[in-house]
Amino acid sequence: MNTMKFAVEPLDTGASFKTKAYAALKSAISQMGIYDHPSEIRLDERQLCEALGVSRTPVREAMALLEREGFVRSVPRRGIFVVRKTKREIIEMVTVWAALESMAARLITQRATDAEIRDLEELFLGFSDAGLDEHLDEYSDANIQFHQSIIRSSDCTLINEITENLFVHIRAIRKITIQQNDRAHRSIVQHQHIIDALKKRDADLVERLVRDHTLDLAAHVEKHCDFLD
Amino acid sequence: MNTMKFAVEPLDTGASFKTKAYAALKSAISQMGIYDHPSEIRLDERQLCEALGVSRTPVREAMALLEREGFVRSVPRRGIFVVRKTKREIIEMVTVWAALESMAARLITQRATDAEIRDLEELFLGFSDAGLDEHLDEYSDANIQFHQSIIRSSDCTLINEITENLFVHIRAIRKITIQQNDRAHRSIVQHQHIIDALKKRDADLVERLVRDHTLDLAAHVEKHCDFLD
DNA sequence: ATGAAAAATATTGTATACCAGATACGGTCT
DNA sequence: AGACCGTATCTGGTATACAATATTTTTCAT
């Protein structure tokens, strides 16, 4: 039988409206700058349905997920509101992040190849060249990307999943946390030390460095972010 | 005005059918012994609706949550299946647990009162008296309770929330992980060391002890739990 | 004009009807 | 008899209708 190749793509059958709505809503919340506006932000369910072009059911199921993950809060017969984390909750998130990333770094010393660690270093060098004093905003992105790279390199799916949601909130307040240039500079130095420890494959050292580096941020939030409450 | 107490309970108005269904389903999944049966376990949506006495909508919303949390997997037009974690996923869960509980222990050394640490010790003593060689199953429960107590004492809501879901899976394979008496005995000794370190408020030491103790379990699963896949 | 009561409105929670795809079974053609 | 196709049925996905309640507006009596 003359079967010629037809090159059909697998057509993503897994993407239901619910899944798409979830992705769209989460993306929208991530980008909206939760902590910029002073007032509570309310989401109109019907309006969202119309915007997404689907009925309430998939939107509601997506909302239920976002509520469980702490992004929104649904008050019966009142509305759905975007959640603003309190200072304490932010600190808890940073603390969990510190615990997970330090474990990720430990895993890297045990499992990563030399090439993978070299990739991390090159990524880091690119970042530190890019944004120094001038573009703090860009550097803030690079900063988070550095940490995400470490977590990704650990090759632990679960740590990646958990921290992904944390970073959505962390990113939202990133602008404030790097307001002082000192932090940016110290940050680069500490990152260099972390890379060095990874290259030496010193598990205990790199774990301590990563943990303390991130807990520094927690302490900084504790001191300077009273406006959150 | 003569207002006498009437002792009416707050009648949880916040508990919607969706919430109740979520709790009921999660509880059922937790207790069903996921890894006992060899075959895939399928849940019938409409059957569950009838059993719970509600319509499909709240059950479906609850299912969406459970799917996001990794307890079930919904295949369109096929059915909803209870998820069996692979060996690798179990090890990842134990690894995350190790990271979070060691951080929790660190927090205890910084924030807990002497009385709280004493409570932990008494709890531990009660456990070790209770189940020794004979009732390994009970000891396994006590074992997990010990770890949960540490996490609870850290007073970090987020760590509590994350580990709660992990423990549902961990508990499901606990019976296997304590099959060797050595593990139970070694476990008690290590727990004693952890308590001692907490009393000395030695953050670095207790962090290391908790981490290594839990990572021991990860290594044990790696070696002896091939049957999971 | 003002206050309260009542009705209209808005919004989420729930139930149900319908849709589309996947499987199993049975019939038909070879 | 066996391969193949159509249909019947079962399943989860989606849309919509209905219910319950908080809010806002309207209305009417004082």
TrEMBL record, chains A, B:
The keyword Transcription applies. It comes from the Bacteria. Signal peptide: none annotated. Residues 15-85 form the HTH gntR-type domain. Keywords: DNA-binding, Transcription, Transcription regulation. GO terms for molecular function: DNA binding; DNA-binding transcription factor activity. SUPFAM superfamilies: GntR ligand-binding domain-like (SSF48008), Winged helix' DNA-binding domain (SSF46785). Pfam families: FCD (PF07729), GntR (PF00392). Coiled coil: none annotated. InterPro entries: GntR_C (IPR011711), TF_FadR/GntR_C (IPR008920), Tscrpt_reg_HTH_GntR (IPR000524), WH-like_DNA-bd_sf (IPR036388), WH_DNA-bd_sf (IPR036390). This is GntR family transcriptional regulator. The lineage of its organism: Bacteria, Pseudomonadati, Pseudomonadota, Alphaproteobacteria, Rhodospirillales.
